[in-house]
Each structure stands twice: as structure tokens, then as C-alpha cells.
Amino acid sequence: MSSYADAGVDIEAGDRAVELMKSKVARSRRPEVVDDASGFAGLFDASALLKYRRPLLATSTDGVGTKVMLAQRLDKHDTIGIDLVGMVVDDLVVCGAEPLFMTDYIACGKVVPERIAEIVGGVAEGCRLAGCALVGGETAEHPGAMGVDEYDLAGAGTGVVEADAMLGPDRVLVGDVVLGLASSGVHSNGYSLVRHVLKNADLGLERYLPELSRTLGEELLEPTRIYSLDCLALLRETTVHAFAHITGGGLAANLARSLPGTADAVLNRGSWTPPAIFTTLAERGGISQDDMDRTFNLGVGMCAIVPADEADTAVNLLTQRGLPTWILGEITPGTGKAHFS
């Protein structure tokens, strides 16, 4: 005789994890969320979209890559969910969409209820910071396929934007200004290179580095900054032609995605100082400037392209909201590329 428990799946642990996370998920609730007593689906009241003339639904899905491996090594699981939300909702806001709700998926080798609750609690906190609701999710136990302390997570989000308010390259004009919105650090991209540097330079995550004023592990697990509410506030108060979420591929490659084929973004590398973690990685790992540019955000997590006469207003607005922002560059005639002057 064999049972599911014999195969390594603990149904009771899964039920306990659900109970532990309920109060945390509730903090992300929006008025449009409708309870489904069965728990099989997340419900969102679509009558909220009636205020739009022509609502477009936007959707995005993502994960956090190998950053989860550092969370597992440090046994710290309460912020990796914030990273997940940032990766999803800040893609949505690029087109001008307001994030409405998210779902998550966690695969693990063994359900440890307290650990799962910490992960989901981070997702819920990220949703709260983004102004969206966490309406559901799934936790799957994969014994034999993953180690008992291994897990991975992914999520999907939905947002809405008025059709005639959708942002994009077609709105960008020569003479516009590119604003840099500060990142909180490495965010959730480039961690395969980070881990390569840690291994080759024999750097321990518990090691205190004076230039960081904390341990390397604390710096590398700093959660991804969530920009959605700041970007939406900017849209309400000023004119924005485009956003660019700076993720895998680096600043120039991601910014180019928001440019028309008739214009370039010329960026001033001297307009900001990248956070110390990037200098540490470059020097300890012997990484070239070109590879740094193509891998990391280098301190710029989001860009906004605005008319020149509204640039100062935009900078002041975001700065007052606690988000360091500066004039990063300008839009010139070109062929749809972003590059440093």
C-alpha cells in the first residue's frame, strides 16, 4: 500500500500554509474583489471598468529568476514576493495601465507552512504597495523534482488602461526629456552573473562590506522597487509620453523598446552615480562596463519620457513622493536606439 504522503506530498501542511497566509493576503484587498466561497477562482468585479470609454486589459507574467537561490541560502523568504510583484506590475504600468489584481504560483520540494506563508506574505505586501489585489494563487509540492528547501515562484497580473491614453513609442517626440527613476539596487535581474561573481571571488553572503554599510546578502536581497503608484501619479499630474521598465538587458536595451524608429535616447552617464553594489560587482568580478550595461539596471529602475517643459515638474513630483528622480538624457533624431553620450 502506498499513499500521497509516502510519495512526499503533505496535504495537511498545504492546508496549514493556506490558513497562515490568509491574513496577509487580506491586506492587499481592493473594493472590487469578490469572495469565491469555493476558493477555486479569484473574482474581480468588472463593473469597475464601466467608467472607461474603451478599457483595454493589460496582462503580464514573470518570475524572479535565480534571486530565489539567495533567499534560500539565507533562509529569508519574506521579501522575494515583493520582487515578484515589482517584475509584473511595473511591466503593466509601462503602457499606462493601472494594475488591478495578481495571482501567484509557488512550486516547492516540500511545503513548509511558515515558509510558504512568508513568501505569499511578501507577494501580498508587494500588491499593497502597487495598489492591486492578490486574488488567488497555487502552491504545488514537487518531491523528487526539487529539493526539500528549494522553491520557485511566478505570477501574473492584470491591469486596465483607457485606449486613447495608452502610452508607447508613437507618442515620443524629438526634444523630449528622459527621466531616470532610481532603483533600490540590483532588483531581480542579473543574478546568474551575481552568483558567478560570488563563487569566483569567494564572497560570502554573510560578509559585511563597508561600502554597502551592511552584509552582501542583505544588499542582494533588497526587494525590487515598485513604481506603479508613482508612475500613475505622474500620469495624473503631468504629461508622459512613455515609460520603460529597466529589467534584463539593461538600461539602453529596455529604453530602446519605448522609442520610435525615428528617434534616439542620448543618455548622460554623468547624471547619476550607480549604487555601490554595482561597483562592488564590477570590481570583484572583473566585469566590463559593456557587460554591466547589458546586464544590470545600474541604479535606474524605470525611465519616463516627458515633454521638456514638464521635466522639472515631473522630477519635483516624484522626488516629493520619496522617489529619487533626475534628468537622464534627451530624445534626438535617430533610428530607435538608446546610447550614452
From TrEMBL:
Locate the PurM-like C-terminal domain: which residues?
Answer: 174-336
Instruction: Return the Pfam families for the record.
Output: AIRS, AIRS_C
Q: In which pathway does it act?
A: Purine metabolism; IMP biosynthesis via de novo pathway; 5-amino-1-(5-phospho-D-ribosyl)imidazole from N(2)-formyl-N(1)-(5-phospho-D-ribosyl)glycinamide: step 2/2
Q: Which residues form a coiled coil?
A: none
Biological process (GO), any one: adenine biosynthetic process
Domain PurM-like N-terminal residue range list: 54-161
* Gene3D superfamilies per the UniProt record, alphabetical: PurM-like C-terminal domain, PurM-like, N-terminal domain
Q: Which GO terms describe its molecular function?
A: ATP binding; phosphoribosylamine-glycine ligase activity; phosphoribosylformylglycinamidine cyclo-ligase activity
**What subcellular locations does the record give?**
Cytoplasm
Which controlled-vocabulary keywords does the entry list? ATP-binding, Cytoplasm, Ligase, Nucleotide-binding, Purine biosynthesis
The reaction(s) catalysed by this protein are: 2-formamido-N(1)-(5-O-phospho-beta-D-ribosyl)acetamidine + ATP = 5-amino-1-(5-phospho-beta-D-ribosyl)imidazole + ADP + phosphate + H(+)
EC number(s): the record gives 6.3.3.1
Q: Which InterPro entries match?
A: PurM-like_C_dom, PurM-like_C_sf, PurM-like_N, PurM-like_N_sf, PurM_cligase
The GO cellular component terms are:
cytosol
The record's family statement is:
Belongs to the AIR synthase family.
NCBIfam families tied to this protein: purM (TIGR00878)
Question: What is the name of this protein?
Answer: Phosphoribosylformylglycinamidine cyclo-ligase
